[in-house]
Amino acid sequence: MRFAPDSVDALLFTVALGNTDPAASKTGLDEIATVPTLMAVVEVNRMLRDAGALPFLMRHDHFDWHLHATEANAPLAERIRVEVSLALADVIRSGESGRMRVCGAPDCAGLLLDLSRNGSKQFCSVRCGNRMNQLAYRERA
Ligand SMILES: [Zn+2]
Ligand SMILES: [Zn+2]
After folding, report:
1. Domain boundaries, the chain
2. Model pLDDT for residues 82-114, shown as the tens digit of each residue
3. Report field, pTM of the whole predicted structure over 0.85
4. What is the whole-number distance in angstroms between the Cα of residue 75 and the centre of ligand 1?
């Protein structure tokens, strides 16, 4: 496992959120994934500070020990921002910022989280993958 399981969950959630209608994503988290590490660090720190995040360990339901950093009654958007900030902190600390990037299809701005062993994932979705494969095939023909 490359990142903590709850980090992976939060990152996949961010990718899904970022890849829906961009107007629907008000968190601004999708932008962080695409900027250089140093800028991402500044943004992540700002989001944690703005939320007054104080990390503490929790174990509940069927989830093993993981970090919470907001009160349970904090607004949903703030809880999401903080959870994803912690996940991004995990990514940055492990020197794997490149694992979160924009889709390789030139006409797509979708995000992808690359959890493959060799970091070879190229596209945000099967749809983009198929589309680009078809294009490549036609160019060969
Ligand atoms: Zn929890
Ligand atoms: Zn795509």
Report:
1. 5-102
2. 998 999 999 999 988 888 888 999 988 888 999
3. no
4. 15
